[in-house]
Design goal:
The structure is a single chain. This protein has about 240 residues and is mostly helical. It has three domains: about 80 residues, no CATH class; about 55 residues, no CATH class; about 90 residues, no CATH class. It contains eleven helices and seven strands. Strands 3-6-7 form a three-stranded antiparallel beta sheet, with no helix packed on it. The longest helix is centred in the first third of the chain and has 16 residues.
């Protein structure tokens, strides 16, 4: 006679109404791993390897069987993001300026230091405050994991913006064609909200075509600034 167990081979045997409670052990396991790593001095590359190879692998088997509650996924993303950023408060501020463009602080910095571009294209400038110098020096950290999710594609450059995501790169790897497409919008059929297959065939190599076709266009045709470790913000422009 077998006693009743909460888990069998790592899987919950009973799913009640509170799914977050059932899957809480996954969050606890991830939290313990991250806490152990926080005591060590890790480079950004080291953090990325650990997050992708260890943390993201923990829930893989269960996700193949059960649909995870959205709240649990958000909590896991949050833990990964906190581990990635660590004590880099300036990196967090850069992210807030980039994704909360209508805040007072964002409007002040934009008017003074990058009125005609985003914060990521902004130059340091010959005369700048200590606050701006600190933020500007942290852009590289944020840009390492940033990518765009496609809405209408009007302001996403095919060749210079990070928008194609797989294990190889965040950028297009195809050879650029003279007189070819430059903006992602040129690859989208606005009426059907689908990719133009003929344009993809002319523009991309096999790798890029596969990645593009695997992507879904963002509803309401908004582009979304996302981060590879779970951060995401809607940019309504």
């Amino acid at each position: 006679m077998v006693e009743n167990h909460e888990k069998y081979l790592g899987f919950p045997t009973v799913i009640g109404r509170s799914k977050k409670a059932v899957f809480a052990y996954i969050k606890d396991r991830i939290w313990k791993k991250l806490q152990g790593w926080e005591e060590k001095l890790l480079s950004r590359a080291g953090k990325e390897v650990l997050l992708k190879s260890v943390i993201q692998a923990i829930p893989t088997y269960l996700m193949g069987v059960y649909k995870f509650p959205s709240g649990l996924i958000q909590e896991i993303h949050g833990m990964m993001a906190r581990f990635w950023w660590g004590s880099n408060d300036k990196g967090k501020q850069v992210w807030r300026l980039a994704t909360n463009e209508h805040s007072l602080v964002s409007r002040v910095f934009k008017a003074k230091y990058f009125p005609h571009s985003s914060i990521f294209e902004a130059a340091l400038g010959p005369i700048s405050s200590y606050s701006w110098q600190s933020l500007w020096s942290s852009k590289a950290l944020v840009k390492e994991g940033m990518f765009w999710r496609v809405g209408n594609g009007n302001r996403i450059n095919i060749w210079s913006d990070p928008w194609l995501i797989d294990d190889e790169s965040r950028f297009a790897t195809s050879a650029r064609i003279d007189d070819g497409c430059n903006m992602v919008a040129e690859l989208i059929d606005v009426n059907s909200c689908c990719w133009k297959l003929d344009a993809l065939e002319r523009t991309f190599n096999d790798r890029d075509k596969v990645v593009v076709l695997a992507m879904g266009l963002v509803s309401a045709f908004r582009r979304i600034l996302s981060y590879g470790l779970g951060l995401k913000a809607v940019v309504t422009r």
